[in-house]
Amino acid sequence: MSRLLDALLTTDPVQRVRLTQAALAMLLLAAGVLGMWYFVWIGAARGAEVGGWAAVSVAGMGVFFGLIRSGWSRRLHEPSMTVPQMVFALTSGAIAYTLLGAGRGAVFPMVMVVLMFGMFIASPRQMRWISLYAVVALGLAMLVMARLRPREYPPAIEGGHFLIVALMLPGVSLLAARLSRLRHRARQQRAELAHALARLREHATRDELTGLANRRHMETVLAQEHQRCVRSGQTFCVAMLDVDRFKAVNDAHGYAVGDTVLRAAAQEAQRHVRVSDVLARWGGEVFVLMLSDTRAALARGGLERLHQRVAALRIVHAEHALGITLSGGLAEHHAGETVEQTLARAEQALREAKAQGRNRVVVAA
């Protein structure tokens, strides 16, 4: 059954919605055809006329389904072809009105179902034109039949029918406008909620000042990398980086300049790490870099290049160019140790880099 539905409605979710809508319209029309045959059975309508009407109506809706299923309708501004389908169904209903004689009142519910079908899809402007078309189409059917068969379609009765149609159908466009506003409001609320959730996810994983991953997210990444290495037998490295003499920058130039220094260092460092590596702000002026599937010898080369790139930065402030240097401690994860132990060795190597005069990288033993 699932394969049959996929073959009939495709697996494309957008196209599937369009085809489901067209299939529902065909089912509604089929229900109308069955109702028409009831009036043939009781003698209120002629079988040959109803049979021809049913064949043309069902075939017409089948053509719409085929145009959508083939993808041809994607060339149109409205690929679902909702408005053309509604116009066709209303035209079919107006013709049915001329065939049913005493049973013609059954057409009115059919017309309302067609209009209600469009209320949830068409725009208010489209519904206004469609409602007007329905009034005109039914009005012409009533006028023609009142002239051709006045005994069966008394002009006074048809005038009353037209009055009801002319008063009631425009109300559908008003309801459609109301529904459209509700749909627009719901879409807007969904968009705002999605944006708010995206912002929450961003705040949960990103450092607001530098745009890097935050400490919480880095802890998760390190835990995942540790589990991966346990399964694969590979290893990874962790580097702890510190902006040299950052407190002096804050004291001499203010916290705004300090923030600028941190952003510049973070952005420059981020540009020179591999896609598979993760750089995070660990706290204050300290950063942590996780280098996946890497031994210390290779990691040190990459870290030295990053260190040199950051050292080449110059931040202009009050006609002065401020330089930035980093001290770094690098530790390769050893089998059997925890992530916390690897981080502690990287932190100890960072202390040694600071003790040796800063602006250098030290590899932990």
Give me the secondary-structure category.
alpha+beta
What is the strand tally?
A: 7
> What is the 3D form?
elongated
Count of distinct structural domains: 2
Describe this structure in words.
The chain is an alpha+beta fold and 365 residues long. The protein folds into two domains: 2-198, no CATH class; 215-363, Alpha-Beta Plaits (2-Layer Sandwich), CATH 3.30.70.270. It has twelve helices and seven strands. A five-stranded mixed β-sheet has the order 2-3-1-6-7, with helices on both faces. A hairpin with a 2-residue loop joins strand 4 and strand 5 (320-323). Helix 4 (82-99) packs antiparallel against helix 5 (107-119) and helix 4 (82-99) packs parallel to helix 6. It is elongated and about 110 Å long. It starts with a helix and ends with a strand.
Summary keywords:
5-stranded mixed beta sheet; alpha+beta; 12 helices; single chain; two-stranded antiparallel ribbon; 365 residues; Alpha-Beta Plaits
Summarize this structure briefly.
The protein has 365 residues and is α+β, with helices and mostly antiparallel strands. It contains 12 helices and 7 strands. It has helices at 2-9, 13-41, 47-69, 82-99, 107-119, 124-148, 155-205, 215-232, 246-253, 255-271, 296-311, 339-355, and strands at 237-243, 278-283, 286-291, 314-317, 320-323, 326-332, 361-363.
SSE blueprint:
Blueprint: H1 2-9, H2 13-41, H3 47-69, H4 82-99, H5 107-119, H6 124-148, H7 155-205, H8 215-232, E1 237-243, H9 246-253, H10 255-271, E2 278-283, E3 286-291, H11 296-311, E4 314-317, E5 320-323, E6 326-332, H12 339-355, E7 361-363
Parallel strand pairs: 6-7
Antiparallel strand pairs: 1-3, 1-6, 2-3, 4-5
Helix pairs in contact: 2-3, 2-4, 3-4, 4-5, 4-6, 5-6, 5-7, 6-7, 9-10, 10-11
